[in-house]
Design a protein that fits this description.
Belongs to the CinA family. Strands 2-1-3-8-7-6 form a six-stranded mixed β-sheet, with helices on both faces. The longest helix is centred in the middle third of the chain and has 20 residues. Helix content is 40%, strand content 28%.
Amino acid sequence: MKTEIISVGTELLMGYVVDTNAGRIARELLTLGLGTYYQQTVGDNPDRLRDALELASKRSDIIILTGGLGPTQDDITKQVAADVLGDELVLDEKQLDIIKGVFKKRGTEPDEKVYREALTFKHGQTLLNEAGLACGSAYVRETNKETKQHILLLPGVPYEMAHMLKNKVKPYLQEIIQDEGVIESLFMNFNGIGESKVATLLNDKIENQTNPTIAMYAKPRHITIRLTASAKDAETAARMNQKAAEEIQEILSKHFIGYGEDQTIETYVVDRLKKKNLTLSILEGFTSGLVMSSLTRVAGVSAVFEGGLVSLNDKMTESQLGLEDLSDASAADAAKMTAEQCAETFQTAIGLSVTAEITPNTSGQLLSGTGYIAVFIKGKPVKMKQFPLPEKPQAVLRDLLKNEALAFLKDTVN
């Protein structure tokens, strides 16, 4: 079945708002085995939205629109969709109750325009919005083809859209495709290996894939492999995915950091520290706190991360960590010293030091140099890694060094 996503909102076209909804919808559809063939972005203009919807109607089996369901005059998605589909809009009583309940808690009365958010297709299905005010809608349309066409309207507010996508839309779509069996996806995550290397190691499996299928997605120092199995039931599909995953893990075991679409190197590191009952402190120079910032986004990190220091000069580092003559040491020795002293100062089992020697090019716009990463674990020699930083903008180099530091920390605590 061909799927198409239409994002509605002039603010998207103007660049004031980044469209994260379309990407999220497309990724979630893949977990059901549904591919997104087309994406459109259209402003709050009735004629252009009608053109977009009519174009999608000619080529796609599932059309998902996101945005334009609110109470204002430029929220036109429901009205235009109803016109194109030849249906009318009616108020959904359950969504009205949700709206009234929200305003009652606020201690205010809703404006009459707010009730527009409870409009839904008269001959369709309401997708209740428990995370906001504007309900979504689903409409089934007869076509000349064997399959029917499904038009779904979702809110544009990202967290509302995500809630409805997970709790309403995915079950709805699963019911549509259940006659063809069940489709299950399993996500595997690997760190510290490049996309081309993974493709080479898994070449035979990728070339001979049938069921499950193998898809690969690359981020800096992070590869996600999605296995998707089709079977008569969920249990069989999950078993097929797990068997394929175990075969892949045997090949890439050194780099495996866990299952799940949202698994990251940060989550893996925090989990490993928890399991080993180890605490961590960090000194950052050139990365300016990026390592600490990424780790502290992980839920439960406070159980293992005690604190750290961002310092861009030797005198500050000496003062805060109680060191002397740091500027006289080589960059590598300084990294080792600060990693050990960081653990001492913060009373942690592990001290991580991330610093760099950087030189700007003649224009001053690009930098290059060497990154220094040191990990001290009490009772063990300091582990040290030097990382060449190619000529790139400062933000890019900082991100590169952050990723290298997390990968080195992962390998050290494994």
